[in-house]
Amino acid sequence: MTPSARPTAAWTPDQPIVSVSDVHKSFGDVEVLKGIGFEVAKGEVICIIGPSGSGKSTLLRCINALVPINSGSITVEGQEVNDPRLDKLALRRKVGMVFQQYNLFPHRTALANIMMAPVHVLKQDRAEVLVRARELMRKVRLEGKEDSYPGELSGGQQQRVAIARSLAMNPDVMLFDEVTAALDPETVKEVLVTIRELAEEGMTCMLVTHEMGFARELADHIYFTDRGVIVEHGPPETFFKQASDPRTREFLSQIL
Amino acid sequence: MSVRSSIMVPRGAPLPVLLPLRRPAPRSLTLPLDAAWQRRATLVVLVLLASWLLCAEALAQAGVARPGIVALLWKWTPVIFSGFLFNILISVLSMAIGTVAGVALGLLQVSLVRPVRRSAWVVTQFFRNAPWLVILFYCILLIPFEFTILGATVPFPAWIKAVIGLSLPVMAYVSEFVRGAVSSIPSGQWEAAESLAFSRLQTMTMIILPQCVKRLLPPWMNLYAILTMATPLVSIVGVQEAMTLTRAALSSEGRFDLLIPMYLYILVWFFLYCYPISRYTVRLEQRHGRAS
Lengths: 256, 292
What we know:
The complex is a heterodimer of chains A (about 260) and B (about 290). With about 260 residues, chain A is of the alpha/beta class.
């Protein structure tokens, strides 16, 4: 990697917002990431696809430091994630994450789920946060569900609350980890619509997904991973038509 | 054998369909009787008890001119009741101290620091697997009867030592409950909290522990009932509680026919105090089971 890929202090929006280079990660003896590298520009939407167990979810978790990496470098807005002196709070304010299993806090209402982090972590004024939380509920089309508990909402509704909860921190990058994989087919669409709107507003999005149609339509760039490496990547037009690697072709033929 | 025989199908019979494994419904600890039957059974027991006491009373009065059993029980009731209140005080205090210490110890058991986690585990296991009576004796002997703090002498009566002695096993049990409840919360909750930049302490107090309360309440109440029933143990170290006072009353009356009714009387008192707690615990558990 060139030194310019590791900016230190001053980050400007024309530089990659997320830059991953030669990342290795093992769980015990199993190496799940074997030298992954790519860059994401501000406002870009990238999709990571690939067979299960290829390290896609781990990769996303490395970007917001939920999982520490063994070697390599990940920077978010110029900040090195692998730095032991990393201010994790500052990093996680910039990077929002949405999970496959929603992971809403079941003992709090939808609105309280959205408000908790801004009020208690960012110490923002409760009244202001309340106004913003209501706006976010409207944005994800869940007006009227503010006082519902997660257990009273459908999977798609819960996932949209989870997206709103993440957005309440005003992140610069959103990570989506197979967010539609646990949903009923009929509710997948409502979640995808929400993500599409976000992408169209210019949010930088990194999605791990199995929704190929969605990836083709929305992504600026597609990465195909298998066994811990990026096998192939490209913009969707060329990626889906001219996949050259046999592993990619086999995967696509199974899923399309 | 039974598996094979169930697969064998007579010729011409419809093929067996693989049915989903059905677990037998969890059996509740109560008798399999409906509410009306329970009321009737309770009534019968009470009537039997009362008639037996009245018979004994009649016999006693027919014999020599001395006070009957019921009259004696009535006579000693205020004294024994004051002792029983003391039992309740001891149980409440032990429970309070044990719960606070137990929650703290339980949280240390899920600490990220290995030595902390291990030592909290050792303390928990030690007090959880020790007989309560032995712990009680140990505390009575180990703790001095007074402390001198800044020149002022603070007495440390036996009953307070007994409270501490009983709170130690409570602490150990609560610690285990907390550890179990915390680790039963799905890891996704931790991940979500972490990705929202909550600190570990914030995650614990605002997200994990509130979800544990519902799970903790039934075993905690059960433990309280067990603790209350164990409070007569402190009579051995000379605390003026119900059991001690009952024995004192018995020896001052010196009547053998009073022994069994008197102890039965005490048993009924404890039963009347503990049974509603255990009933309510069962109700809570059922409601919890339905909710999840």
